[in-house]
Amino acid sequence: MEPSQSTKKSGTYDTVIIGAGAAGMTAAIYAARYRMRTKVFGREVGGLLNEAHKVENYPGYSSISGFELMMRFKEHLDHFRVPVSDENVTGAKKDGDLFVITTDKGSYRTRTVIIATGTIRRKLGVPGERELKGKGVHYCATCDAPFYGGKTAAVVGGSDSAAQAALLLSEYADKVYMIYRKARLRAEPITVKHIQDNPKIEVIYTTNVTAIKGASKVEKVVLDTPYKGSYDLPLDGLFIEIGADPANTVAQDLGLAMNEKGEIRIDREAKTSVKGVFAAGDITDTDYKQAVVGAGEGALAAWSAYYCLQDMLNP
Amino acid sequence: MEPSQSTKKSGTYDTVIIGAGAAGMTAAIYAARYRMRTKVFGREVGGLLNEAHKVENYPGYSSISGFELMMRFKEHLDHFRVPVSDENVTGAKKDGDLFVITTDKGSYRTRTVIIATGTIRRKLGVPGERELKGKGVHYCATCDAPFYGGKTAAVVGGSDSAAQAALLLSEYADKVYMIYRKARLRAEPITVKHIQDNPKIEVIYTTNVTAIKGASKVEKVVLDTPYKGSYDLPLDGLFIEIGADPANTVAQDLGLAMNEKGEIRIDREAKTSVKGVFAAGDITDTDYKQAVVGAGEGALAAWSAYYCLQDMLNP
After folding, report:
1. A262 by DSSP, 3-state: which?
2. CA B137, B140, B146, B151 torsion: positive or negative?
3. Chain A partners within 8 Å of B292 (Cβ)
4. Which residue of A lies nearest to B73 if distances are taken between CA atoms?
5. Residue A197 contacts B, CB cutoff 8 Å
6. How far apart are CA A84 and CA A111, in angstroms?
7. B79–A contact, CB cutoff 8 A
8. Which residues pair with A95 in a beta bridge?
9. % of chain A exceeding 70 in pLDDT
10. 3-state secondary structure of A113
11. What is the ipTM metric for this complex?
12. Pairs of residues, one from chain A and one from chain B, whose beta carbons lie less than 8 Å apart
């Protein structure tokens, strides 16, 4: 008996979702509801949101840790029996009507691709940063703030994430500095007010860190502008919160149109410049990076992938 | 002493949000976080989603009733002490740099407006519909399905909402018909499978209801195509689930650009064609009507309103 179309194509997925943060997991939930044959790759389930100490702006949860919220997303996804593979995606290419996704363990054929790879944290790029990483230099306040009970720590950056990190640190440390290159924090106004009202936090404006020093652990940082008469600021720990860059290697492989920041250009239906490829979440050129915005894009991406698939299978 | 700028303008809101469904409440949560002076009008907190028996696609909640989910949104909003007024918005107009929103109880000046008015359920428009409304003719299965224990009911429509209504009815009624004008349901594939697997539900395709009959309550409907040899289908109740029209009277008042369906055209930042006016949720021209998509738009609308306000106040 001749194998049916579906048997012949049994190695082919309807969609491969790369990334398992808020956007990728939402895309996976929707893809499963559309009964698409779905594969999800995500080295870290939850992504960047895992590092958020408190999330108070995902509608429906007044206050929840980022990790806990992402576990709720994961439980939701588990209801549809769509596993998340921790294989590392190393490449992607178009192959006729299909796409081939390569990982460190194999390669996978799929009719559509949803990219939700998010961002990679930016490094400061100063002497001492690499050497003292994990020895007082940190990139995740939620993860490492609890080690600073009774100590002095600083946050580099002026974003909402940076301010949230400072607020969290103030719950442990005796003294927290925020060191920011500009004259005014760019955090949300409500967060700025919390910073101003917090007696433990001091903001050092229009100042950059030029080096991190210490024998076996952080002892001080060097500033480019004197603070209280000194270029040296003694510290036990430094949290670097200066943003993140788009994780766009798969997007590059597939030749997707991107903006000057390296974010994937999408339209209002989460379509990229290449047919069959969709994107959602922090990797896209949507300016406002929020869990609920990325989740909305994830739903749109799965919906668009579903209708793209219908067009492919019933031309 | 001369009153300060803020005292003089004390009657002016930073933003007025019209609608308190998923999109409107998310906009309100974000507006509050931006410390904007915010007024929310919503005759029905929760909006259309209140009527959903089960919501299984709002990420983070595997399965929850629409009413319960909307109560979680409301509790979330309550944390920011932003009340929802049940005044009925009757008109809106531009007045210089401001907007004036009129309700049945007063008028309100605001710098920006966020429209999240959603949709109004569509009527069938056949004889007997108005007369027998509430006497066997229903528009909300979640609200009224429990009255049909052991009875026979039908749903008109083929959308996902219609199919969900039929599934819910089948938990009470002995027999449920779906009457649909087309040859194939347009519900989500997973929902179609549930319909097909349900022994109580029978779908009557390519058929319209032309009249609803009954002395003091629904007794039967008249079909335009015979079913099992008869134009009459005896029923205890009829649930009309044929979609909804955009609630766009405020949009019309403000002269916003709309599409052919009467939905407000927005860009990727939830901006409408009129500066200072934003829209989110089912009222917009986003094709995919989902709670999480509307919530994402609500966040974007508040963010855009906030930056619009910054531009107005610091030109």
Report:
1. coil
2. positive
3. 26, 292, 295-296, 299
4. A60
5. no
6. 19
7. yes
8. A98
9. 96
10. strand
11. 0.81
12. 110
CA distances from A149 to A152, A166, A171 (A): 9, 13, 8
E strand residue ranges, chain B = 12-18, 38-41, 84-85, 89-95, 98-103, 107-115, 119-121, 137-138, 152-156, 175-179, 201-204, 209-213, 220-227, 230-234, 237-240, 244-246, 277-279
Tell me, yes or no, if A143 is annotated catalytic. yes
Residue with tokens 């929310």: B40
Averaged pLDDT score across all residues of chain A:
92
Contact call for residues B89 and B250 (beta carbons, < 8 A): yes
Catalytically active residues of B are: 140, 143-144
Query: Which chain A residues are within 8 Å of B313, Cβ to Cβ?
Result: none
Q: Would you state the torsion angle of the CA atoms of residues A195, A155, A200, A175, taken in this order, to the nearest 10 degrees? A: 180
A144 given a catalytic annotation: yes
How, if at all, do strands A220-227 and A230-234 pair? antiparallel
Nearest by Cα to B166 from B190, B132, B137, B192: B192
**Cβ pair B299:A57 closer than 8 A:** yes
Q: Does B313 touch chain A (CB under 8 A)?
A: no
Q: How far apart are CA A298 and CA A13, in angstroms?
A: 18
Q: B288 with A34: CB under 8 angstroms? A: no
For an interface test with B, which of A45, A61, A62 has the most B Cβ atoms less than 10 Å from its Cβ?
Answer: A62
A186 touches chain B (CB under 8 A): no
B97-136 pLDDT tens trace: 999 999 999 999 999 999 999 998 899 999 999 999 889 9
Stated pTM of the model: 0.82
Q: Is B259 on the interface with A (CB under 8 A)?
A: no
Q: Which of A184, A148, A189 is nearest to A166 (CA)?
A: A148
Q: What is the 3-state secondary structure (H, E, C) of A7-37?
A: HHCCCEEEEEEECCCHHHHHHHHHHHHCCCC
Collect all residues with Cβ–Cβ distance below 8 Å to A59 and sequence separation of at least 6: A292, B22, B25, B26, B29, B73, B76, B295, B298
| Contact A73/B at CB under 8 A | yes
Longest dimension (CA), chain A: 86
CB–CB contact B26 A288 (8 Å): no
Please answer whether residues A36 and A14 qualify as being in contact, where contact means their C-beta atoms are separated by less than 8 angstroms. yes
- Chain B CB contacts of A26 under 8 Å are 59, 292
Contact status, residue A48 vs residue A24, Cβ threshold 8 Å: no
- Structure token digits, residue A99: 């796409």
